[in-house]
Amino acid sequence: MKLQHPAVYDIPELPYIVEGETLAQFIKRTVEEGKKQDPDLYDPLSYMGDCWELFAEFFFKFFNGDHTLTYTADYEPNMEYDRGIDGRGVSTLDGKPNAIQMKFKADPTKWLTNDDNISNVAADATMNEGLEYNGKNVIIFTSCKGVHPKHAMANVHCISNSEISRRVDHNVVFWDNFREVIKEQNEEKEQAQ
Fold this sequence. Notes:
Elements: H1 7-10, H2 14-17, H3 23-35, H4 44-62, E1 72-77, E2 87-91, E3 97-103, E4 111-112, H5 120-128, E5 138-142, E6 146-147, E7 157-159, H6 161-168, H7 172-192
Parallel strand pairs: 3-5, 4-6, 5-7
Antiparallel strand pairs: 1-2, 2-3
Helix pairs in contact: 3-4
């Protein structure tokens, strides 16, 4: 597996961040390291968001084709533009494209609201990419509780902290593979220089 998000190379603290074996540990270390960033060099919120997007890329690739939670195969991060879609894949329900937005929140008990710009993914997917909504092909992947039930986006497929934790907490293979991919890619980059 090859990770494409530039954070795999841009964040030197990744080995420390992925040392644990639970989502809570990953979030805690992401926030801890994010707060240490010099805002003039790497905006702390961008840093945390990049860590989350890299985690999400690995998650979707590790659970490729899962038909019980992600409903996504062939995930690729969006490296072109950012109007709300952070990644794309193929819906396991109908074989058509799906769009995924990542949202990082340090507090897993919080809801996503208008303040988090979560409507962007649906607007971009339907208006700019012609995606036909099927109930599972617009996905929000978040470290928090999910989309607030009274928000207009509450009907999109949200993969929240509790669902992610159920898949990754104490999943030794998941964390070992994540660490190994990060290590291998950085070693390859060093050898190429």
